[in-house]
Automatic annotation (TrEMBL):
This is Serine aminopeptidase S33 domain-containing protein. PANTHER family: MYCOPHENOLIC ACID ACYL-GLUCURONIDE ESTERASE, MITOCHONDRIAL, PALMITOYL-PROTEIN THIOESTERASE ABHD10, MITOCHONDRIAL. The keyword Hydrolase applies. InterPro entries: AB_hydrolase_fold, ABHD10_acyl-thioesterase, Hydrolase_4. Keywords: Hydrolase. One of its GO terms (molecular function) is hydrolase activity. SUPFAM superfamilies: alpha/beta-Hydrolases.
Length: 256
């Protein structure tokens, strides 16, 4: 099925591609991962489910991703967070469930913080897949090689082969430095809403221990952790997509 063309929204000079379908609340807001786009299997599966349910659904591409403008290497967590907040505030009405995949989970947690600060939080729940909050400080910085540190100092970035693309992943000094200003796992995280985490135990990119650390910082009475024994980082197999839909559906039923 061909996706409908996106609409575009200017956020701080970046042309951000957005797809939004109106419907019942709580609506679903998709937040993709690092170097992923809004036409991936998980986002498309949720879009199809939301359409069938008559539920509002919103997704966008960060700058330098998918159909949005801008250079990927210019992006930081602060940049992509600001874009996500702008899209959220412009397109949503009423209660929403944030569904964040990998880096998108970090964006989701930061969005909750910023929305609460502004006293306009309409977040009814969080569903986080293979969550990678604070990945720059927790997963990248501790294992930087001498060569990578040298590249960061001299070139301002280093490259790593990707399991998901022919192009390498680029990690910039700006991304890593900005990541330190957006850390969420430095103490208790009060989301003021239920959280459901889906984590594969065969995830080679974000270890299950990272999800367990995140769980330990969330209020115990409102967090569900579903561990998928043979699930990898992408969680895009049919059985993973089915589990995602069931988790989002259950969260939506709670929010009705």
């Amino acid at each position: 099925m061909t996706a409908t063309p996106p609409v575009f929204m200017d956020v701080d000079g970046s042309r951000i591609a957005v797809r939004h379908t109106a419907g019942s609340t709580p609506g679903i807001v998709w937040l993709g991962g690092y170097k992923s786009d809004m036409l991936g299997a998980k986002a498309q599966t949720l879009s199809d489910w939301a359409a069938k349910e008559g539920r509002a659904f919103l997704r966008h591409d960060y700058s330098g991703h998918g159909e949005s403008g801008g250079a990927f290497a210019d992006g930081t967590i602060s940049t992509w967070l600001a874009q996500s907040l702008a899209v959220f505030r412009h397109f949503t009405k009423g209660k929403q469930i944030l569904v964040g995949s990998s880096m998108g989970a970090w964006i989701a947690l930061r969005m909750v913080q910023e929305l609460r600060k502004a006293d306009d939080s309409n977040v009814a729940g969080l569903v986080l897949l293979a969550p990678a909050p604070d990945f720059t400080a927790e997963l990248i910085e501790p294992v930087l090689t001498k060569a990578q540190k040298r590249d960061l100092a001299k070139k301002g970035f280093f490259e790593e082969p990707s399991n998901y693309s022919t192009e390498p992943y680029i990690y910039t000094r700006a991304l890593i430095e900005d990541g330190r200003d957006n850390l969420t796992m430095t103490g208790p995280i009060d989301t003021h809403c239920p959280v459901h985490i889906l984590q594969g135990l065969a995830d080679a990119d974000v270890p299950a221990s990272h999800a367990l650390k995140l769980v330990s910082l969330l209020p115990a009475d409102d967090v569900t952790l579903s561990l998928i024994p043979d699930g990898d980082h992408r969680l895009s197999r049919p059985q993973d997509l089915d589990m995602l839909v069931r988790a989002v559906d259950a969260m939506a039923q709670r929010g009705n």
